Amino acid sequence: MNIIVCAKQVVDVSEMKVDSKTKKPILQGVPQKISDIDKNAIEEAIKIKDKHGGKITVVTVGPSDAKERIKELLAMGADEGVLISSTDKYDYRIVSSLLAEAIKKIGEYDIVLCGEASIDMFSGQVGPRVAGLLNIPQITYAQNINAEKDKTVAMRNMGDKSVTTESSYPVLITVTKEINEPRLPSLMQILGAANKPINEWSAGSLTKELQPKVETIELKGIPMQRKNIVYKDDVDDSVKKLVDSLAKEGVLR
Amino acid sequence: MTEEQKLFQKTVRKFCEKEIKPLASKIDKEEYFPWDMYKKMGKLGLMGMTVPKKYGGAGIDKICYMIALEEISRLCGSTGITIEAHNTLGNGYIYEAGTEEQRKKYLPRLTGGEAFTALAITEPNAGSDVGGIQTTAVIDGDEWVLNGTKQFITSGDIAEAIIVMAKTDKTKGTKGISAFILEKDTPGFKVGQLEDKLGLRGSKTAELIFEDCHVPKENILGEKDKGFYGVMDTLDRGRTAVGAMSVGIARGALEDSIAYAKQREQFGRPIGKFQAIQWMIADMATEIEAARLLVYRAAYLEDNNMSFSKEAAIAKLFASEIAMRATRNAIQIHGGYGYMRDRPLERYFRDIKLSQIGEGTSEIQRIVIAKRLGL
Predict the structure, then answer these.
(1) Region for B186 from its dihedrals, namely left if φ exceeds 0, alpha if ψ lies in -120 to 50, beta otherwise
(2) How many Cα atoms sit within 13 Å of B29 on the Cβ side?
(3) Of A154, B90, B165, B345, which has the highest C-beta tally within 10 A?
(4) Does ipTM top 0.85?
């Protein structure tokens, strides 16, 4: 079973700070990493490969240094990497078309796996768009995948309910964070990753249409202000007031 | 750091956060030995870090090994010393001095996390003065017969293969010492008392007794009467590693102090706003950075087959001394809370003391450095 995993290099948001005056995120010097949920996608790909055999190819759109991030996925168990290299900022539409073109170029595949969304922008658009461009079925928000020989059955997390969906191959599946726990590569696997191939294809070689239609004008952190309400008199009375306040804020339903 | 080294660090850090952190306090307080965790470490490659792949190791370079030791020791000194002794003193010695047969026989189990190894040098009357050991090995047909007592042997009671330093020529001091690999079920071998220590309480420290222990002739490790040089070479390697361990423990003291200084308020502001605290923390950070670079330099020299004996001694001396100071000041910054056992500060303070003693005291390091400077 040949599996292609789309993974995105993102800033490590846990290391990101917001300028207190301008409210703009400070991105300089913030380390990059593979978006967390994309690692769940890799983990699921490895599990499917363990069951059926085959090959896992990782595809990323990003600058040249993204190769270093791809190596971590190769260490986990992917077989080959493809970097669609570009330093330009693209919108979801272009990223999706680049991924779809790269997947067509790779050729044979049974499953395309993506994270449900990236942890930096969290649009959730890329997976479905790629499936649309490839004209293949898609299963989004999978919290469980059972890949059988001729079909795959996935349970989709729809918030307050789960929906079981079945598809033939090829299929694109986006996974949620709870689907698995991504493995840590062993030291031997990290060393071994240096010998696995990473092909670099320029964005321009895949599509000529690289002009974004969506422009990001401004990016600002959301200011959080605490209400600092303290109930400290009678315990019973305070508990009641606290519960009322939480209910009023919509925290308790 | 190269990208590969960063990935090593990230991987080991994640593992330690998940597996070691929740157990660190229990390991210290209950002298708990987490066998399962060591098995997991074996799978990750942490039990045979610098041993080449063909013998089951991970085959990483010495700098990566130091990175891993720092990460492990940052959360648990006991685990740090156990891993260090196993990797450097045991596996390292067998790999460096062993024959192809010895490497193939012992290393795969040891590197896979299935078994521990230990190096037995110290005796009741021979600590820094290795030439003064009294354990003897006498040839008897196809076997060596070992007699004597060793003490303070890290992982001595759990090791499956123990490297025992013994006199093969009593008339020759350091030039009459040889090393032997002894298997734990050898008749005549027994574990004596387990030590009750100040710190590193989750690391096992045992007395080992040899009474007419017959060891096959081929179990001599390295050349006869040349064991002193082999063990000194191993201790050189160990010094860099103890330096890395010290940096790890000191980093714990630093990180906890920064967090506490930001959160603890006195006189209406966080104590981190007071210069007295800032200076202690700034000094800690400076010294830790310097110590880490000394450790990396010694490891780099070793990786590149250059002389590293002086640099390893410098790294160990400096790192262990500054770490002692860092853990002491971290308790000072935490005040009464630092003195209590429900925080790890007092553990760091107890654990680090061994770094100034084990694998060559600070005084011995100074002698090594002075000698290498031609004095």
Answers:
(1) beta
(2) 11
(3) B90
(4) no
- Interval B194-221: pLDDT, tens: 999 999 999 999 999 999 999 999 999 9
Minimum distance, in Å, between the CA of residue B174 and any CA atom of chain A = 38
- Report the residue of A33, A188, A195 to disrupt the B interface, i.e. the one with the largest count of B CBs within 10 Å: A188
Please give the positions of B annotated as active site: 359
State whether residue B7 sits within 8 Å of chain A by CB.
yes
> In this complex, do B43 and A186 lie within 8 Å of one another by their Cβ atoms?
yes
CATH number, domain A2-206: 3.40.50.620
Residue type, A64: S
Helix, coil or strand: residue B33? coil
Identify residue A242 by its one-letter amino acid code: L
**Domain chopping of chain A, boundaries:** 2-206
DSSP 3-state of A143: strand
Residue (of B37, B88, B81) closest to B197 by Cα position: B81
pLDDT tens for A27-58 read 888 989 999 999 999 999 999 999 999 999 99
Per the model's pLDDT, the better-predicted residue between B85 and A252 turns out to be: B85
Does A187 sit within 8 Å of B3, measured CB to CB?
no
A129 within 8 A of A92, measured Cβ to Cβ = yes
Q: Are B53 and A75 an interchain contact pair (Cβ–Cβ within 8 Å)?
A: no
